[in-house]
Amino acid sequence: MKFGFSGEQEEFRSNLRRLLASRSPTKEVRRLMETEAGYEPGGWRAINAELGLTAVRIPEAYGGYGFGFGEQCIVLEEMGRVLLCAPFFATAVLAAGAILNAGTEAQKAALLPGIAAGDTTATLAWVEDNGNWDAEGTALAASETAGGTVLNGHKTYVVDGHTADLIVVLARAPQGLSLFTVNGTADGLTRRSLKSMDPTRKFARLEFNGVAATPLGTVGGGAAPFARTMVEAAVCLANEMVGGADRLREDALAYAMMRMQFGKPIASFQSMKHKQADMLLEVELAKSAAYYAAASLDEGDADAVANAHLAKACASDTYMQTAIHAVQIHGGIGFTWDNDTHLWFKRAKSSEVLLGDASHHRELMMRHWPA
Amino acid sequence: MPEIDEASVRAESRAWLEANWSPDLGLVEWRHKLAQSGWGVPHWPARWYGRDLPVGLVPVVEEEFRRIGAIGVAKVGIRTLAAATILEHGTDLQKEKFLLRILTGEDIWCQLFSEPGSGSDVAGAVTRAEFRGNQWVVNGQKVWTTSAHKADWGLLLARTDWEQKKHQGLSYFILDMKQPGVTVQPLRQMNGYASFNQVFFTDAKVEPEFLVSEVGNGWAVTTTTLMHERRGADGLRSWAIASDRPGRIYDEEREEIRTTMEPYKWYPQRAGRVDLIMERARATGKISDPVLRQEIARVLVMSKAAEWTARRARTAQEQGRPQGPEGSLGKLASSIIARAAARVHTSLLGADALLTGDDTPMNGLLAEILVSVPATSIAGGTDEIQRNIISERVLKMPRERTGDTDKPFKDVPRNTVA
Fold it and tell me: Do the beta carbons of residue B98 and residue B107 sit within 8 Å?
């Protein structure tokens, strides 16, 4: 399904679009983004129970629907359109991805059903103060004690890290890079909510002081599953981003059609028309890249990694550029808090940086480009 | 009457080809046989060299041609546009006179639409055709005419009534290019090639029976021609592939393709040659330059995303779903990509970008990219026109008010042409 969605997928998308539009109008986004958690557990559980969103890509054996990245990316694109305030990306993409890639059969059977059912929220903690998006910057130490493995150190920029029930942590053990799971309320774990530039996506800093941890998969075998999880997350985020970019573009167009200056709609000025044409071009290109990268993962293509970085690089530039144009088209009102454009502008900026910016992903794409 | 289906079409065309095809025939001789049999253009009307076959069955016939290695009717160049236009709007006399020699390749055609004063605005043509005595007399100038110096006939858009509004005052003619009133001059481009011509008319003559459709209906006929052009007339945008088989008829076809495609040999370079970037970056060692790597990656990202966007559009079309906006974006994307690719090729060339021809790598091919790319954002509709089309037709933004359609064309301000 690299170049088109099936009838079922299109129907899934349109149902989702309709429901999310009614559940997450900007008034609701504004209410939730002012909360410390950034979402409402009861409300999110209800939406998830109705639509089964966290179950989409979890295999049927672990209580999910067993769909692929193609379907999960439809969910993300539609969530990106409405800036849904929910710990979906952290739980269903980052944490579930790491568990699927690294976990043993028993661990998957133990951890994934709760995520699929929407009972467990989770996240992945891998970045530290050095701000490295890859595993190289990992200093947090895992050591063996009589009572089991304990973690010491810190993690930061952890998406929804202050609320997650379950935290997957990337740490350095004597055997090498390893993934562990930690309970969100474990002793010795201090969580501080950070002030997020984008209030619709919250980050936290976590301090680990002798926190009891369970190895996820093999100790010392964390590098490969972690890297795989990052590639998948880049594709998922790219799809979320193109949803937001398309929405911004549409809203800016609607505004230009209605805004009158010099006795006519500003949409009749060629400078506006050409800007809108450029925006459409960029967004459609970024959508194609995001869709193709998702299908590449599902089909196990040899160039799936290069395509993932390509999609994230493209989405980063496009979403941000679209947001800049959208504010500009709105003029003065676009710079106000009351106008909704800044909500997407901030999500665009946050998404541009999260998992590494466009330059970072262009470099990774070049390293993985087929010879 | 026996039912027409895939099996019967396959059997019948195969039987005919096996009985008639021979690589020892002359090209024109063979195409005459083809035209008379109807198998050369089977979807055309049976009365005019076809067999009234549904278009969907044409690929079956083409398959049989390929199976036996048979050559088809002449397809490259403007002649396919001429054929489509004459079939739709022409009189029986015009069809009789022109269609057969189009199919055999005996006549070469050119398109006389663009003028120095009307590029993006083709309907603003000011070349005039006046009916004097018993014939039309043409004066004016056309430009960007491929193959004009070889053409036997031209498809001419000319103004016949200056009292009418812009689009109503135009008429469409078939003009004999081999006459004293027609002068053809090659138009040299900034990349040194002369793929196009300027055509000057000084009291050039058109017989009354070579008016296509009616006086004043020229714009509708022009639209037909342009529609077929955009639909991708084979000879214009893609490359005709010559067979490498031995034999007299193949030799003649190779020569035909070589001559027809000659003006287009720099076309791959105008698209920026993204395909050469990685190979060149590795060969020059500049692949390890972190700044250039970013530039290269930008081009690759755009080029891949554009390729996948085109495939999305085609898939939607094939599945019979309504085409989304992705279908209208390719032309604009290719201009942006070509420009970015030329910038990267400049960096890869380094100081060699100061030179041209065989003093530069790849015998001048790379240097040719740098001076050919500007054509991409102009030919076939400028970027500006593409953006107008996207914003007005796809995004439904208000059309710009034009100042030339509400009054007699004689009162419209226009360029003065020397």
Answer: yes
pTM, two decimal places? 0.90
Q: What is the CATH number of domain A7-121?
A: 1.10.540.10
**Which residues of A are less than 8 Å from B402 in CB distance?**
none
* Assigned architecture for domain A123-222: Beta Barrel (2.40)
Where, residue-wise, is CATH 1.10.540.10 in chain A? 7-121
Q: Give B376→chain A minimum CA distance, Å.
A: 17
Residue numbers in B near A257 (CB within 8 A): 397
Cross-chain CB nearest to A314 (options B293, B301, B386): B301
Residues in CB range of B357: below 8 A, 6 or more apart: B363, B364, B367
B340 touches chain A (CB under 8 A): no
- Pick among B274, B300, B308 to test the A interface (most A CBs inside 10 A): B308
Q: Write down the pLDDT at residue A339.
A: 97
Residue A83 and residue A92: Cα distance in Å, rounded? 16
Tokens of B112: 């006389």
* Neighboring chain A residues of B300 at a CB cutoff of 8 Å: 310, 365, 369
**What 8-state DSSP symbol labels residue B319?**
T
Tell me the average pLDDT across B313-332. 78
Given a contact cutoff of 8 angstroms between Cβ atoms, the answer to whether B200 and B46 are in contact is: no
Write down the architecture of domain A224-368 according to CATH: Up-down Bundle (1.20)
- CB contact under 8 Å between B321 and A288, yes or no, is no
Q: pLDDT by residue (tens digit) across A47-97?
A: 999 999 999 999 999 999 999 999 999 999 999 999 999 999 999 999 999
Read off the pLDDT band of B319 (50, 70, 90): confident
Give the closest of A2, A267, A365 to B297, CB-based.
A365
